[in-house]
Design goal:
The complex is a heterohexamer, with three copies of chain A and three copies of chain B. Chain A is α+β, with helices and mostly antiparallel strands. Chain A has one domain: Alpha-Beta Plaits, CATH 3.30.70. Chain A contains two helices and seven strands; from the N terminus they run βαββββαββ. In chain A, α1 packs antiparallel against α2. Chain B is mainly α. Chain B has a single domain, classed as Ammonium transporter fold (Orthogonal Bundle). Chain B is about 60% helix and about 0% strand. Chain B has a two-stranded antiparallel ribbon with strand order 1-2. The chains are: A alpha+beta, B mainly alpha. Chains in contact: A-B, A-C, A-D, A-E, A-F, B-C, B-D, B-E, B-F, C-D, C-E, C-F, D-E, D-F, E-F. Chains D and E meet through loops of D and α1 of E. β4 of chain A pairs antiparallel with β3 of chain B, so a sheet runs across the interface. Bound molecules: adenosine-5'-diphosphate (3 copies). One adenosine-5'-diphosphate sits at the interface of chains F and E.
């Protein structure tokens, strides 16, 4: 199995969730994060002085999937998250050796 | 002049002033956190802008000596002759300047009420222009008609103790015009826009309730039995409104909500406003209760009819104002206020009710048409609405370059490079943050 | 009738009303965030419920013409004859309706005070029923005994300027009865229940302190030297209470805390309440200081004795109220208020102190027994406590289907599927969220 | 004695008291979240400490019978002879105790204002000692000079209606002395210290604006035409200040900010304070506007000159106070207040302006020198500044063992092991949390 | 070495911490997250309209352990987090190639 | 490719960002987390009772890098985050099989 991690723009979360559901993926874990990258943060004004904020708010998705679904997942995320502009984010894939569903103790793909 | 009356109206003016920050919080808590400052700003800035305009021009148009029943003349331009002695025609026991200041606070909160309707998508520049012009072309004439000696609605004999038509129906129908011109928020109807901080909304409700004693009891223009009676009616309107809305919630959703109780209190306050100085305690409870129940139902209309009134200005202020204005015609009682009239249930027949209908109808028509035209004009010039990108980003960053909250553990790091305060600032494109 | 007195009592009534939202915030900040709305609700809803009940029945039981020293008759049912002219027996210089409204605000906050004890685990329906009944069977009689002409404690000559027995001891001992009936929160004694927002608690403290001027100085029922003296005593009670608690904290934990200062201010205000109109500035400082110190110690008792008084209503209101009621017997001074009496240190001997003991004892016994029985009754019928699952979820979601805060960047997404507002809503099982 | 006047001053006292919690929130919202409680504490604790000290010693030094134009004697020690009847020399129509209490509220907020300058790095013990001593050696003499019969600045004929010199310039220049002694925060000049909760700052602004009516209109010491005029001027000062700062923001950054509007309102209020009872509405607008614009520019000076005035006490209170004091010499008008004088534009020539300069100069010199010496003394004994480790951790945990907010879903878990409340507590080294 | 990631119900965190301590594990990193899965979120009411919230609040634990401790850790989490009801969460295990303790520079199992 | 995960003290984030930039790393994803470990949390006082908080606030960094940059990244983090005191945190390294840039669809090291 694999874990697909994606960092995307927050307002794209809803779209990605839809494309993932379209691809038959119903489970994921989401975290609010701050992203540093090519895209710079916004500008804030504080009593007359302007400041550059270094990061951009992002959300991070984690989806554990069976090996053969990885491409579908990547495609779904890419479709849902893309705005064609800088800061759309990244996806990375790492190996997962085992998955367990706590409630039932099921293991492997059955646990998803 | 009476020191007790003066003390009371000075404090009442402070209380009404305090309602506007209260409204800012009431509204601010209901939007999404990315729009909290923009929403608050639209109430707070009215304190600045309208205060100044009221002195310069607004007051004289509203309360200057009557011209044909429709407007005041320019005698009080720049508060000329608005001094430390009473103006007997307006308020005989307090300094004229105190009356004018008390009225200023009403003029501030009325346009602020409207802002709840177009929250989360309005340009700040458009809002400023709208507020300034609306004060002059809509609010000042309406205040003249209803409250100034010679104003045609006042002469007609329609009753509005503390602003059912001038403030609430006026703001509520203007809100409807505004959302029709400005259009829906991105995502309206698809999901919920969940309030980001209901504790802030409750605090705002508390401040509004507190300040409303100044609004309504202060409208007696003295510390007398009438003020005491209006004070009680105000509290009962709020209380019964809260109970009414809670009952509807409990019936419909099998549970009461704090937002319902807060909204019901405000709805009850709106409904009791025109009646506060004309009814006794039991009618006050009835008016509040009906206000709460009807408004609880009315806030659902926007989903059915598809207008995006973000924070329910129509459902609460327009509908609550209508309920109150008409029920004043039902419950008003000369035994409570001999300057009033007897309504339907006090044996006065349909006379008063008819006048109330005329007053309401005139307000609806005048305010809707002029507000609609005004907004179309502003839309075509300065523009009303933020871009879609800015709406997604949130108006706080997009329009004010600020964020409401910054709780992160490593928050001190959130910004690292300070642009040289004076010179370099201009180089950073301000729109950079958009489209997060 | 006097306009200055009327102005003062109207404003004082507004100030006391404002204390209840203040209390909502004071309490709300101290619970865990999942319970903040439920806690706030239990104060805010009292504004609605008690206002209405007070008009309908409460006032006449408390202040209607005396029946045997124990209760008022029904002359003022529905505020009948409570009008714009003074009732000389109650308050000779202000409209009767103004006196009745001022008293309404006391009747609202007293049951709200109790709610801090059972915070984070009470059912809303049980709370509503309890508040309504408690107002009628406990509060109204107590108010009659102490403040109404003919009330037996008043006739006895015991002193309670603004509610040491009627409000604080009464609410405090009812709180103790309540936690004994309702039982501990899950996890009590194992870890800390850390306040989720101390800034909210401080704001609540500020509002309480501000409103308490209306509570205490307003109890002079006029804008006179006595009101001025009570005003000062109130401020000093709060101030010295804050200092007292801070000193205990500093000695015990080697640092002062903001919660300690806030709690100390409230403890000092509680302690000075019965004495405010009977003592000069230096005794006021002493009473506040002793109140702060004793309450700082008393809040630890719940851990030792194992009752779960969530927000220390017993430690602050019961204990602080006892301190104040008894010290009134020590410090009261005819030189300050000739309608009062001389206490122990003013050379009045033990007479007054003895009467204070009687008043306190009667309050403790009556309120504890009736409250306990009432709660047992409600527990057996409507039920008092949420399920364990609901307690884990938090009362906000479980009882009100709302959450206090929603700060997430992607918050607009938090809910996506709107049930058709009218019809479909009922299909979603409301308990679904439980057991998160 | 007049009940209307008394009612007004009692309420005004409550309003001024409420400003201090307002200030706590105004300041609290602007710091980083790890310092919010410590910052709030430095205002709230002043309510406790200064109230007590004012009764014991402060009042008599300020308003006791004059000794040589410089200080009051000890006649009013412990509020001896400060009773329910008026003191004609101080305020002829209200109880003496009411005047003394009103003045108490000014004495509380003035040192609290200073704390914004050294926010986020001050030791609590150092703050307590500083506040107590500063009240006695700086505030009380200054109040005597300007407001007490016989005080040399009052006798000179310089005008300060409600505290431009005594409160704002005094606090502002003391703030400058303080930051010079205490030094910069770690990280000053490298990045921004972004306000953690601007909604709190706006709420604080609303409370300050509301309370300021008590501050300025109350300084008329009665409910009369002068109070009404000062009330209006106050509102216009705030309003025009908000507009002024917003304009500067809009010109410089192409957008207005809510912090700018809030800061501008406060700057306008500061500027109008000395003038409130001496000028009409149009000059009030001018003073507010100039105050807002000049302060918007002045807050940038700290970056240029490198002093770390955390929350701009110098930029707003010192500079705004100077603007107001001097413009009083320009705009004061005998037509508004015959106890005043004619300023430059009212045809009074440079006489008044000259006196204003003397008053300002004396305040600057006296307050700066004594404050500086006092702080050096405290630094050498108790110490002023937290350690660097504590500064990194935040003063909330380091100085008060508390955190402002605890919103986490699993918050109930945040603390698990309760030290036995009494005994064991002392074993846990309190500094453990440092250096997170 | 391995990293064990678990997504559990927030109110079970305390129990899991205890079972982990029982199993000799004293270090972990915890994040507040939002979970999407079979368990639906709660219902909220907003001015008379009911809404279904899509996610359930969860906490996410990360525990880096030596290979031979993995089974113990999984067992401890399963025991502590189970309520036998839907939404109890998942555990997944991925490989870790190196661990470093920043303070000392220690590497491998010693760094835990 | 690898993913380097580091848990550090929050106030060291700025320093680490600088040392990482010095090492030519410009992208990362940051999360606020709570850390349990040897370092105990702080003490809080609540109405006269003292409590020990179990966790210490931390920030968690994720940096995806090409294999040959791992050592530089670890070094940069260690340098930036170290205060030589307990609780400085940990770094762990796991394999990443693929990286995708959402905006362009680029894969592998080019996507960073
Ligand atoms: N090397 C990296 N490791 C982990 N996360 C990264 C890395 N580089 C970028 N990110 C994440 O991806 C987000 C988007 O990257 P950015 O360079 O701004 O734009 P783009 O995705 O268009 O290349 C960043 O905000 C950050 O959260
Ligand atoms: N494929 C997945 N990848 C990552 N996290 C998942 C996945 N599926 C579920 N989760 C997480 O596990 C939690 C529980 O899953 P859920 O399907 O609701 O119940 P259960 O654990 O009983 O199967 C979810 O809230 C989510 O955080
Ligand atoms: N086994 C582990 N798995 C994951 N994170 C851990 C582990 N042990 C410690 N941590 C994280 O590292 C942080 C620091 O660990 P700690 O033991 O306190 O100090 P040190 O890093 O000096 O050894 C912890 O707060 C926690 O976030």
């Amino acid at each position: 199995m694999k874990i697909v991690v994606a960092v995307i723009k927050p307002f794209k979360l809803e779209d990605v969730k839809e494309t993932l559901e379209g691809a038959g993926i119903h489970g994921m874990t989401v975290t609010d994060v701050r992203g540093f990258g090519r895209q710079k943060g916004h500008t804030e004004v504080y009593r007359g002085a302007e400041y550059q904020v270094d990061f951009a708010p992002k959300v991070r998705l984690e989806i554990v999937v069976d090996d053969d679904r990885v491409d579908d997942v990547v495609k779904a995320i890419t479709t849902g998250a893309s705005t064609q502009s800088i800061g759309d984010g990244k996806i990375w894939i790492s190996p997962v050796e085992q998955v367990i569903r706590i409630r039932t103790g099921e293991k492997g793909p059955d646990a998803l | 002049m009476d020191t007790g009356d003066t003390a009371f109206i000075l404090v009442a003016s402070a209380l009404v002033m305090f309602m506007t920050p209260g409204l800012a919080l009431f509204y601010g808590g209901m939007v999404r956190s990315k729009n909290v400052l923009g929403t608050i700003m639209q109430s707070i800035f009215a304190l600045g802008l309208v205060s100044v305009l009221w002195v310069l021009i607004g007051y004289t148009l509203a309360f200057g000596p009557d011209v044909g029943g429709f407007i005041g003349n320019l005698d009080f331009l720049g508060f000329k002759d608005v001094g430390a002695t009473p103006n007997d025609a307006l308020a005989a026991t307090i300094p004229h300047v105190s009356f004018a200041t008390f009225q200023m606070m009403f003029a501030i909160i009325t346009p602020a009420l409207i802002t709840g309707a177009f929250a989360e998508r309005m340009k700040f520049s458009g809002y400023v222009l709208f507020t300034a012009l609306w004060l002059i072309v809509v609010y000042a004439p309406m205040a003249h008609w209803v409250w100034a000696p010679g104003g045609w609605i006042r002469e007609l004999g329609a009753l509005d103790f503390a602003g059912g038509t001038v403030v609430h129906i006026n703001a509520g129908i203007a809100a409807l015009a505004a959302v029709l011109v400005i259009g829906k928020r991105k995502g309206f109807g698809q999901g919920a826009f969940i309030p980001h901080n209901l504790t802030m909304t409750v605090l705002g409700t508390g401040i509004l309730w507190f300040g409303w004693f100044g609004f309504n009891a202060g409208s007696a223009l003295g510390a007398n039995g009438l003020a005491a009676s209006a004070f009680l009616a105000t509290n009962l309107g709020a209380a019964a409104g809260a109970c009414g809305w809670a009952l509807v919630d409990a019936r419909k959703e099998r549970r009461s909500t704090i937002l319902g109780v807060a909204s019901g209190a405000v709805a009850g306050l709106v409904a009791i406003t025109p009646a506060a100085g004309f009814v006794g305690p039991l009618p006050a409870i009835a008016i509040g209760l009906i206000g709460g129940v009807v408004c609880a139902w009315a806030v659902g209309l926007k989903f059915r009819w598809g207008y995006d009134d973000s924070l329910d200005v129509v459902g609460v202020h327009l509908v609550g104002g209508l309920v109150g204005a008409l029920l004043t015609g039902v419950f008003a009682d000369l035994a409570i206020n001999e300057a009033g009239a007897d309504g339907l249930l006090a044996g006065g027949g349909f006379g008063l009710l008819g006048k109330q209908f005329v007053a309401v109808g005139a307000t609806l028509a005048f305010s809707f048409i002029v507000t609609y035209a005004l907004l179309k004009l502003i839309d075509a010039t300065v523009g009303l609405r933020v871009t879609e990108e800015e709406e997604v980003t949130g108006v706080d960053l997009a329009q004010h370059s600020e964020v409401g909250y910054s709780f992160s553990e490593s928050g001190s790091f959130t910004t690292a490079h300070q642009a040289t305060p004076s010179a370099g600032a201009a180089q950073v494109p301000a729109s950079e943050g958009s489209g997060i």
